[in-house]
Amino acid sequence: MAKQSKKSRLGVFGVKPVDLFSSLKLELSALIVCATAIAFVMCWFLLKFGWSGWIAMPLTLVVALGITYVFSRGITAPLRQMRDVAEAMADGDYTVRVTIDPTRHDEVGQLARSFNEMAEELEHADKMRLDMIANVSHELRTPVSALQAMVENMADGVTDPTPANLESILTQTQRLSDLIAFLLDLSRMEAGAASLNIERFNVADFLDETVEPLEITDGGHAHDIQMHVPQDVTMEGDQDRLRQLFTNIIANALKHSPDGTTVLIETHEDTNNGTIVTNVVNFGSQIAAADRSAIFRRFVKGKSGPGTESGGTGLGLSIARWAAQLHGGTVKVVDDDRGADFEIILPKYHISQD
After folding, report:
1. CA separation for the pair 248, 167 (Å, rounded)
2. pLDDT above 90 as % of the chain
3. 315: CB partners within 8 A, 6+ apart
4. 3-state DSSP helix/strand/coil percent for the chain, to nearest 5?
5. Where are the transmembrane segments (predicted)?
6. Domains in the chain, please, with CATH?
7. C-alpha distance from residue 165 to each of 154, 160, 168 (Å)
8. 98-147 pLDDT tens trace
9. What is the Cα 130 distance to its own chain's centre?
């Protein structure tokens, strides 16, 4: 009930602001000039018709203050709305918005629109956070239940600790380890941790080492990972962080590719800009231009299609972007008629952020 009453107070300011100007300073200046002019004319008429100056002056001041108050309410109405919206958001209600005339382009109007964008982002983050809690609970429960069942069966003598059974236990513990690693990376992202161990390495060798375990875990999906990487390209960076970047991007391409299709990894050196450019392409699927930015937001999961897998925590691509940004690079989806093309651009030489 408290939230509802607070929401009902939003948007009740009906006085129209001064919409003829695109600057708040001009609006306030025009308001002062108009109020002063009206007060001057009124005072002149009152004095002309024989009113005492001791009466005419206070009366014109009251009228000027009244005019200023009425019109200033319209100018500052969004500020009061933002106050109420902020209070509602502090109580956990992220659905409220500031009501603003779309034709208003002064500083207050721009601030109100930016405030609404922030509120929309917070609403999305809160929803994704709740979804993530549910997803993590499910992801944790599944391997833990499997581990408990297998260990209990072994303890009761129902099953023997054969290599196959131990391999199943190892698989479940690896799932737990991966999930914990994702959560730790999320904590580092939130804390802004950016410690890097910079070293020079060969890009082709690095990508070979990164792709090898992905080919093993790809299992029976029969994806063909083709690599076109020059053998003489080197760069500087933190290999652990960059391995997170490339592992998440390549794993995402495999996850959203139908079985038996090709995933292409192309790398070249852009000598003009001093960067290493890598494109990871999974053929057949496309990502709509409107969704290309959203997929890098935390907790956003890609849509699955026929022959593709979904699931996960929705953190992989956001962690990949974070790792790229730590190195002063970028990762984005670019136009490619062949399919979904993730382009990773990293500086060849590390530039200290200090």
Report:
1. 24
2. 19
3. 132, 182, 185, 186, 298, 299
4. 55, 15, 30
5. 26-47, 53-72
6. 24-122 (no CATH), 133-191 (1.10.287.130), 199-301+311-347 (3.30.565.10)
7. 9, 8, 5
8. 887 777 777 777 888 888 888 888 887 777 677 667 666 766 776 777 78
9. 16
